[in-house]
């Protein structure tokens, strides 16, 4: 009788504990998280390794995607350097690799060789992709990003592009968007501290 009573008390305590846990507010990421994750339309891009990159190259890893170009004077090198610093911390929260893809939005000047040299400077977990606008624009637009196209024949120009970072899950689907912070007088960049906090939550919940 005493053992039965103890079992009942333990069961009640367990149920109460679960109820309290579910009642308490759960930590929520600041990023825009897609639930369920969104399918990325089929694409084919030129990879910095000299191979074609398609949807299958995003599978089996967490991938951070962002638009940029090698002539970019501020946002791109800043973002690349920040991601290089934060990658080891992100990797601690994932059993699969965490990679970075820079999507070049300057096909006129960024050929495969130039992108390879640029991305390899930041480490082996960095990969570059490019394509002519006919293939590039639908891919970038499908991710919810944008970029400007220079006038025909223009040589010395800047490319306006999104500063947000896209997170693709190990199934190759769009999982979240980390938006850039806009501060007057400063270039728009994603907070790496917030990105790391959000990634930990997202990776923990991912199945």
From TrEMBL:
Keywords: Copper, Disulfide bond, Metal-binding. Disulfide bonds join 72-76. GO terms for molecular function: metal ion binding. It comes from Pseudidiomarina aestuarii. The keyword Disulfide bond applies. PANTHER family: ELECTRON TRANSPORT PROTIN SCO1/SENC FAMILY MEMBER, LINALOOL DEHYDRATASE_ISOMERASE DOMAIN-CONTAINING PROTEIN. Cu cation binds at residues 72, 76, 161. Belongs to the SCO1/2 family. The keyword Metal-binding applies. It holds the Pfam family SCO1-SenC. Residues 34-204 form the Thioredoxin domain. Coiled coil: none annotated. It comes from the Bacteria. InterPro entries: SCO1/SenC, Thioredoxin-like_sf, Thioredoxin_domain. This is SCO family protein.
């Amino acid at each position: 009788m005493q053992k039965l009573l103890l079992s009942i008390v333990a069961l009640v305590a367990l149920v109460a504990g679960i109820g309290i846990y579910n009642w308490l507010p759960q930590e929520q990421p600041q990023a825009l998280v897609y639930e369920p994750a969104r399918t990325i339309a089929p694409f084919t891009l030129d990879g910095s390794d000299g191979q074609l990159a398609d949807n299958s190259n995003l599978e089996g890893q967490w991938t951070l995607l962002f638009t940029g170009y090698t002539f970019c004077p501020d946002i791109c090198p800043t973002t690349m350097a920040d991601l290089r610093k934060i990658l080891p911390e992100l990797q601690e929260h994932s059993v699969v690799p965490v990679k970075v893809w820079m999507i070049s939005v300057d096909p006129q000047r960024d050929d495969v060789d130039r992108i390879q040299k640029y991305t390899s400077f930041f480490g082996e977990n960095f990969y570059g992709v490019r394509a002519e606008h006919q293939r590039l624009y639908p891919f970038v637009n499908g991710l919810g990003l944008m970029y400007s196209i220079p006038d025909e024949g223009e040589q010395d120009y800047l490319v306006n592009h999104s500063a947000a970072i896209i997170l693709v899950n190990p199934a190759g689907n769009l999982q979240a968007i980390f938006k850039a912070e806009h501060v007057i007088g400063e270039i728009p960049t994603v907070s790496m501290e917030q990105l790391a906090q959000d990634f930990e939550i997202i990776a923990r919940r991912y199945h």
